[in-house]
Amino acid sequence: MALLTILEYPDPRLKKVASPVTAFTPELVRLVRDMAQTMYAAPGVGLAATQVDVHKRIVIIDTSEAHDDLLVLVNPEIIAAEGEAECEEGCLSVPGYYDRVTRAARVTVRAANERGAMVERTVEDLLAVCIQHEMDHLVGKMFVDYLSPLKRARLASKQRKKQRLAG
Ligand code: NI
User: Fold this and answer.
1) How remote is the CA of residue 65 from the centroid of ligand 1, in Å?
2) pLDDT in tens, 42-87
3) CATH class of domain segment(s) 12-166
């Protein structure tokens, strides 16, 4: 297992659109395991492959306290969505920043797991929000894209300054 490097906003690689997974290989199983280790170590409740610079449609989520309920979604599609929920979100690619975003309150997602078995789940609340947040990463979209242009510009300049100091 290995810890992967998480890209940080406004890294342009976070804007790449992921392509579907076409083969369920041991490499995919290994990647999912490494992503899980990276997410738990961060710590975070969700991670998209895009965030570790792998541009494939893979997301993992675990909102459990005990970190023992890993949901792996390969080639996920939201097949139903309803309601509205406003939730404070954060992202491992935007460390230390949180803001409110409005999303669907309940979604039904269909996906494969890392071994190719089909999963279909209808979920709400935090899990529904996480799925939408992570799936956005796969199309190059981040939660900060929902903020006002002014807020986003301020955040981007703060992040760049921080990265210059760190680098
Ligand atoms: Ni995120």
Assistant:
1) 19
2) 999 999 999 999 999 999 999 999 999 999 999 999 999 999 999 9
3) alpha beta
Residue at token pair 């599609």: 77
SS3 119: strand
CA–centroid distance, residue 9 to ligand 1 (Å): 10
User: Which burial class, exposed, middle or buried, applies to 100 when counting CB atoms under 10 A from its CB (0-12, 13-18, 19+)?
Assistant: exposed
Domain boundaries, given as residue ranges, for the chain: 12-166
* Residue 134 annotated in active site: yes
Within 10 Å of residue 9's Cβ, how many Cβ atoms?
A: 22
DSSP codes of every residue in 34-51: HHHHHHHHTT-SEEEGGG
Q: Tell me how far the alpha carbon of residue 26 lies from the centroid of ligand 1, in angstroms.
A: 26
Ramachandran region of residue 54, left (φ > 0), alpha (ψ -120 to 50) or beta? beta
